[in-house]
Design goal:
Blueprint lengths: L5 H6 L4 H10 L11 H14 L4 H9 L5 H4 L6 H10 L3 H21 L4 E10 L6 H4 L7 E9 L4 E9 L4 H5 L9 E3 L7 H9 L3 E5 L6 E7 L8 E9 L16 E6 L8 E5 L6 H9 L2 H13 L10 H25 L5 H10 L5 H25 L1
Parallel strand pairs: 1-4, 4-5
Antiparallel strand pairs: 1-2, 2-3, 5-9, 6-7, 7-8, 8-9
Length: 386
Amino acid sequence: MYTNTRFGELMKGIPRGMFERLAKKHQADKYSKGFRCWDQFAAMLYGQVTGSRSLRDLELSFNSHEGHHYHLGARTIRRSTLADANNKRDVALYESLCQQLLLRARGQLKAQVSDMLYLLDSTPIPLKGLGYDDWAANGHRTPGLKVHMVIEGNQHVPVYGKITPSNVPDLNDARQMKIEAGATYVFDKGYYDFNWWHRINEEDALFVTRAKHNAALKLVNSHSIEGCGAHILSDEAVCFKNRRPGGGRINEYIDPLRRVTVYREDHDTPLVLLTNDFTRSADEVAALYKQRWQIELFFKWLKQNLKIKRFLGRSENAVKTQIYIAVIAYVLLWLYRKAEGMGCSLTDCARLLASAAFQRPRSEYSIWKRRRQQREELLALQGILI
């Protein structure tokens, strides 16, 4: 009886019909000459899961499992063909595929989590040297790319991702995001813009962020901190002093804000938080901002366990393709672990896939179960004969 391999089960997270519709929409297979986008995707995803360090390494490892390619709908690869596909095939296919998968993950989360907590941040991808300087040098102190992400803070799974040049401010990307009513957004001072906060507030969403030391705020009233933790120094309602902060700008945020001041043992100055949430306690507001560190850990995990620091091509298209497939690999691992009911960490799940990607665990279990049954029947028969 046929059973799927671990890697085959992982790839089931991408419906083949959806992939083919996106490939047709972007005309990605127009000049494929036999090596389709699905073949490219299967090979690059395998490279992410197994940690292939070069095209030669990926070619040898992937082709050594040729007998399993049929059930994946893929074929053997040549590194020169794969390199050409990464360099020339428009990354728009994998960007769209990534967005579709993130929407699917968000839909599953909404069915499980009532209060969605979104953590926003970005991480730089430094690119410098031969092949990179032709397109990655943009005048920024860190030439290269920037990966903007939003993750759900309770499940630590991404729900939004986009790649931009490293000189694009975080706020520019955030302004293009769709705000979800009822959700809570947590971000740092890279997203410091009163009018963007106003948009979040108007969409009936909540936010928690840090205040700058020179923010022009006036006190409206103070709330009692009785019953709060000792680290809560104050809990106040404030509003902005100026409708015109300068530079011809107009501050559209006229509603009161909540200012929570938190003591920090390892810093000389306290942490000052601003939020439009007047329902949660001051302790809960402080805990929400503390959770923002989870997105830093997410970026750390991504760079340590997937391939977004060393690239198999030096063109802009090849680099972006590899990054988008890395994010796809992360979400597929999350979906696979959930579907299989695995109690291990995502790191252990990734290690298992890396070492046994083409193992058929259900077939092996069936063989072991049948042999055990035969052994028991033989022992029972021997007991009767004796």
